Amino acid sequence: MAPPGAFGHLSLALGAAVAALGSILIIAWRTYFPGGGRCGARWEPPLAAGQNAALPLAGPCISHSAAPTNSSPLLSWQLDFSMRQVLVLGLEGAGKSSVLHYISSEAAKDRTAPTQGFNSVQVYADGFQIDLLELGGSQNLRFYWNQYLSQAHVLVFVVDSADRPHLPTARQELHWLLAEDPRLPLVILANKQVRISRCLAGSQGRAHLPSPVSRCLRARCCNHSLCVEEATGGLVSLPHAQEMGAEGERCFLELIRCFPKLSRADAEEPQGPPALVQRYFNAFRVGIAEGHRQETLGRC
Ligand SMILES: Nc1nc2c(ncn2[C@@H]2O[C@H](COP(=O)(O)OP(=O)(O)OP(=O)(O)O)[C@@H](O)[C@H]2O)c(=O)[nH]1
Ligand SMILES: [Mg+2]
């Protein structure tokens, strides 16, 4: 039998280890999901080229929802309408970080570094919490995208509308994501349109662009079940992520608030989300086809 002194040292050491582990977990949790204020954000530090930050574990996203543990993710989400987990994806340089930055700081940022891992932003508005998680869009990070789909309530797919050569790749990546989760509500942000319209002559060019944000606002999407889709075809147009403006931001958050409720609540309906997603999907196809028709795009 070991002397009591040895037990004393052992339990002291164990206690210290448990306390240290607990502190680390709490610090990690608070860092990833900081509370308080209108916004919380976790920005990765600028990294040296080629250095990869660890992606967040899938765990914190799901445990962050106020869901009962014995129900399915879909059911638990339906019980909690006060928060949304939004996955923000898109090819590298599409403008994901810029959108997040605007939403979290209400200020434009001239330059953003490529995301080597992830960025997350929490927005609180009217008792509503929206968690946005951006995963970097470079090819090596796209490999991990699908692992985050099951925790997301909405997928926001950001497209660089002016990057014509990469539109087919963007579409293919989106198709793969939708094939993995056909019910996932989808918002496509057609970003960088200012760059397109600068290259096109006046109204002729603008006629081809997706519906403007103002149209979405006029539709007051949260009050009518299908008006989001009717008004915008699922394609939300942000003229410029860096100049999103209060209107654009409000529209975006409104969409996030109402959109998944419409789709996921009807998840079992045969004409529900899959049909809707198909329409968004088609809208994206049309958007891309129009991009191809605009020969001037190639000179942007
Ligand atoms: N002209 C223009 N430039 C933009 C717009 N949005 C973002 N940018 C610029 O495009 C570049 C890439 O933007 P990011 O927000 O870093 O793109 P990202 O999608 O986060 O890219 P990754 O993190 O690499 O996946 C930055 O230099 C931005 O300043 C826009 O609407 N118009
Ligand atoms: Mg980024």
From TrEMBL:
Name listed for the protein in its UniProt record: ARF like GTPase 10
Superkingdom of origin organism: Eukaryota
Entry-linked SMART domains: ARF
Pfam families in alphabetical order: Arf (PF00025)
Gene encoding the protein: ARL10
Keywords assigned by UniProt, alphabetized: GTP-binding, Magnesium, Membrane, Metal-binding, Nucleotide-binding, Transmembrane, Transmembrane helix
Keyword check for GTP-binding: yes
Organism listed in the record: Chelonoidis abingdonii (Abingdon island giant tortoise)
PANTHER family: ADP-RIBOSYLATION FACTOR-LIKE PROTEIN 10
Positions of GTP binding: 90-97, 137
Record InterPro entries: ARL10, P-loop_NTPase, Small_GTPase_ARF/SAR
Bilayer-crossing regions: 6-29
Residues the entry annotates as binding Mg(2+): 97, 115
Cell wall biogenesis/degradation keyword on record: no
GO MF annotation list: GTP binding; GTPase activity; metal ion binding
